[in-house]
Specification:
The complex is a heterodimer of chains A (190) and B (293). By secondary structure, chain A is mainly β. Chain A has helices at residues 140-145, 147-150, 154-157, and strands at 41-48, 58-63, 88-92, 98-103, 116-123, 130-135, 163-165, 168-170, 173-174, 184-185. In chain A, 7% of the residues lie in helices and 26% in strands. In chain A, the strands form 2 sheets. In chain A, strands 1, 4, 7, 8 and 9 form a 5-stranded mixed β-sheet that branches. A 4-stranded antiparallel β-sheet of chain A has the order 3-2-5-6, with no helix packed on it. The model of chain A has no long low-confidence stretch (mean pLDDT 95). Chain B is built from 5 helices and 12 strands. Residues 1-43 of chain B have low confidence and may be disordered. The chains are: A mainly beta (190), B alpha+beta (293). Chains A and B meet through β5, β6 and β10 of A and α1, β1, β3, β9 and β12 of B. The complex binds fe (ii) ion.
């Protein structure tokens, strides 16, 4: 670090609460590309609580590279131009806990690493945001060779890998319980 | 008793009405408008404030005894009933950020108009309440300003009412106040909003539960891993000690980081009171040379 002083302590997070619905969702927030885009795929899933019941008041965000593996620096994630890929999506889940993004398969960004879609989970009842990664089941060899995935206990690894359906991919988020999704911490290892 | 149907948990009833009754007693998340007829679910909605206070105090005593400093909220914090089934039970899995995690979405003037930072001018009339300016800087853990990045806020009106269909608190809606704002930080990392001081409001975590007045803040950094949503509070709120969401940050110094300071330098002559609140995001992972690019 260029600054030798003690790092500042981060401000704590708090729950998104129940009343974000009129504030954070934006028109077309779930459309990283229009469905008519030639490379469009659907990424959908359901958010579940510890009883396996859908969570009807979560907000999900995704952030990903484009098909060539480039991170966009384009503005316009809140006021979208369908011809511009910003790489960012935001959507509330529906009353059955389901979400749908329309996007493209991200290209590789880092040699030797499987590409992924970064995902943030917010919900009432969730006191701080959770971060995870959505890996896509396209190149089994790349997934098998990925050093991060290799470090995830084998019995939990599948929670980070979407499954396929006819229009793209399915990735459920399980906040708690059996098959609880692997959520990530990016600070120093504890 | 009057039940403000729709507060916080009530919408769970809508799609899942038949299923709620099947939950095992004792782990039943609170369901608004449903008064337990038996005592089989002692942890459910109508715990008293005294009961919640005792739970908060018990966790605090354990924390003090452990002697290990925490800086973030607990995810598993039973006094906040809605967290019971929504907190991960396993530790976060450490990941070195890679690829897109090392950068963040870019927002700009295409996304945010300058008028969106003034929540008092959105409806052709003056909203009721205490006009206030809230400003501060968004910094990373190394003290560097987070420049030209998006800050979003939402809040209740002066009477403690949100413009949200699920908010049925019988307090007046203000036709001149929506309570949503956006801005971009400047080159110094400074954000600034003009708004109305929000009122406290009741919720259904337990009987006679009230949230301290707060403004919800949503923030991005220069890396996606810094993404965060939090709440800003006002100094000296008598509801702090009673609120399980605020108290879920068990360390008193950590939770005081969410309390703005009254700042007379921000207060404007014959116009608005002023509050200052700086926000520190988590550290970045790039080297200083990369970060300057
Ligand atoms: Fe709130």
């Amino acid at each position: 670090m260029s600054d030798p002083t003690t790092p500042l302590v981060a401000t704590p997070g708090q729950t998104i609460g129940p009343f974000f619905g009129y504030a954070l969702p934006v028109a077309g927030g779930e459309l990283l590309v229009p469905a008519s885009h030639p490379g469009a795929v659907r990424l959908r899933g359901t958010v579940y609580d510890g009883h396996g019941d859908p969570v009807p008041d979560a907000l999900l965000e995704i952030w990903q590279a484009d098909a060539e593996g480039r991170a966009s620096t384009a503005e316009g994630s809140l006021r979208r131009d369908p011809f511009e890929f910003t790489g960012f999506g935001r959507t509330p889940v529906d009353p059955a806990g389901r979400y749908t993004f329309t996007t493209v398969v991200p290209g590789a960004t880092t040699p030797g690493r499987a590409p992924f879609v970064a995902m943030t989970v917010f919900a009432r009842g969730l006191l701080d945001r959770l971060l995870t990664r959505v890996y896509l089941p396209l190149d089994e060899d790349a997934l098998a060779a990925d050093p991060f995935l290799a470090g995830v206990p084998e019995d939990r690894r599948h929670t980070l890998v979407a499954t396929r359906d006819e229009h793209g991919f399915v990735f459920d988020v399980r906040l708690q319980g059996e098959d609880e999704t692997v959520f990530l911490g990016h600070g120093s290892p504890a | 008793m009057t039940v403000a149907a729709g507060r916080d948990d009530s919408h769970i009833v809508i799609p899942l009405s038949g299923r709620a009754a099947l939950r095992p007693a004792g782990r039943l998340p609170y369901v608004a408008g449903v008064t337990p007829t038996t005592d089989t679910a002692p942890d459910a909605a109508l715990a008293t404030q005294a009961r919640i206070d005792a739970e908060i105090a018990g966790i605090r005593e354990e924390y003090d005894a452990a002697g290990r400093e925490e800086t973030r909220p607990r995810l598993d914090y039973a006094p906040y009933r809605s967290s019971l089934l929504r907190h991960p039970t396993k530790d976060l899995h450490h990941a070195d950020p890679e690829g897109v995690e090392l950068v963040a979405p870019v927002f700009g003037h295409r996304d945010v108009g300058p008028a969106e930072a003034d929540l008092t001018i959105q409806h052709g009339g003056d909203p009721v309440g205490e006009r206030m300016v809230v400003t501060g800087r968004v910094l990373d853990a190394d003290g560097r300003p987070v420049r030209h990045q998006l800050v979003e806020v939402w809040q209740a009106n002066a009477a403690g009412r949100y413009i949200h269909q699920r908010d049925q608190h019988p307090a007046p809606v203000d036709p001149h106040f929506t309570g949503v704002g956006r801005c971009l930080t400047d080159a110094d990392g400074t954000y600034r909003f003009t708004t109305i001081k929000p009122g406290p409001y009741p919720w259904k975590n337990h009987r006679n539960a009230w949230r301290p007045a707060h403004i919800h803040f949503s923030l991005f950094g220069t890396e996606f891993t810094q993404r965060m949503i939090t709440q800003m509070y006002f100094p000296g709120d008598p509801l702090f000690a009673l609120d399980p969401i605020y108290q879920a940050i068990v360390d008193p110094r950590a939770r005081e980081r969410l309390v703005a300071a009254y700042d007379h330098e921000v207060t404007q002559h014959e116009w608005a009171t002023g509050y200052r609140w700086d926000i520190v995001l988590t550290g970045t992972h790039r080297t200083p040379m990369e970060a300057e690019q």
